[in-house]
Amino acid sequence: MKPHSARLFRPWTLVLILGMIYLGVILIVNSGDPKTFVTLGDCFSQCAGLDGEACDDDEGYDGQFAYYIARDPVGSPDCLDMPAYRLQRILLPALGRALSLGHDGLIPWAFVIINLAALVIGTALVERLLITDKTSRWFALSYGLFIGVFMAVRLSTNETLAYGLVIAGIWYAERDRPWQAAILLALAGLAKETTGLFTAGYLLFYALRRRWRDVIRLAVIVGVPFAAWQIVLYDWLGAVGIGSGGAKATPFEIIPYNGVWRIAFDGGLLVFLVLGALVIPAAVLPSLWALRYTLRDLRLGPPGVYACLLLVNAAIMPFVPFSTYREYLGLLRFMPGLVLMVVLYAARYKHQRPLLYSTLWIVLLLFLVVG
Fold it and tell me: Averaged over 341-363, what is the pLDDT?
């Protein structure tokens, strides 16, 4: 390979190529219909104000809700299973409507462009962060080819955009540009509320160092627009968006990892053995490893910023709702923050074995072949 070609062939280019091939195959298989990217279901396409519990028809998938919001923001609540919960993730629908100029047929294309760009740029920034820590750029594929963000491009869900903004925020924070980092984290919170874990991690980092000015700045820049939008939703719909999921979601657990063990009681031993073989190595073991090392860092003194970010993303995993653990793709869509921070933390602190193991998350792309 020529030196110039070597410079061009990088993780982000591989992610771009594979992403375009995958999207192209999906489009061909579905007779060129771009609405396949928003996975419409017969149930909610009727816009009859159903909550998901009353659906006897095909329910579709979550990307349809972003489509309905982008198509008709004011009239969308009747098309959503839980209107306030779905509408709190307003950024992707807003960008999709703006990019498509409000044309229904262009909205799915707009979502694909936005999410694919976010995935590629996010992967490129992870590369740069790894290089800064003198680690191979190719470990960026553990994030870029993680099914929780890669599949989100095809499904038009919020994860790829939300975590792309988080990565950009980390990039600016690492370059001591806190205002830009805070604005990006605020946007991420309006894309998907679970990215608030990164804001919590930075607040923990600043508080442990008594950097109160940084605490106030971040809390205000991220918290005010998020709270204001929740107030708008409450005034409009009579409910705030914060919750454990859409229709049929169960609450966050109190007993650690109870969402995993409940699979056996709900579906039986065979279901538990099958799902457990997927869930435990993909989610439980990485979160236990992360908790072990980050809590050790916390005991030894004020931990580094990556330790704080990993700690909060790992600490939520034992309490993830049963409904999320039960739906494997839903769990993978919940996990990008954990995956990202395992890679960045292991790279910074030279945990070579976990860094190598992180590449096993790429194996989950085999589900795309099965699908």
Answer: 96
